[in-house]
Amino acid sequence: MQTYMPIGYKMVDGKIQIDKEKSKTVKRIFSEYLNGKSLLAIAKELSEKEVLNANNKTKWTHCGIGRILENTKYMGDEAYPELIDKVTFDNVQTKRNQKKNQLWRKANRKKSQSLFANACVIISITQ
């Protein structure tokens, strides 16, 4: 259960509405990610430009960017108006899964290469 209001929304007269200013930041995050920027690069740029996050602070983290990119509320539901269209959201999820799989394969390849890279094989024959 979500206990906070995602960035890009605000409460007005008991209804959740799009916050025009902060919604630009959310759209920018989705767009920049699809255009090849890393989560860390996006966070660093937003922090440097002193863009306010959901807590009205200027400190952004790659984890916070990741949470924004995976938040399904941005596609809209019974309470939240649509901020990001489904095609864009799905494209971001596909790209994130591809990156995750690439990193996982690289990490496993490094582990398997380094596991026996400097090992000597001793064969003992006993009769």
TrEMBL record:
UniProt cross-references to Pfam families, sorted A to Z: Recombinase (PF07508)
Superkingdom as given in the UniProt entry: Bacteria
One MF annotation (Gene Ontology) recorded for this entry: DNA binding
Domain Recombinase: residue ranges: 6-102
Name recorded for this polypeptide: Recombinase
Segments traversing the membrane: none
Gene3D superfamilies listed in its UniProt record: Putative Large Serine Recombinase, Chain B, Domain 2
Upper lineage: Bacteria, Bacillati, Bacillota, Clostridia, Lachnospirales
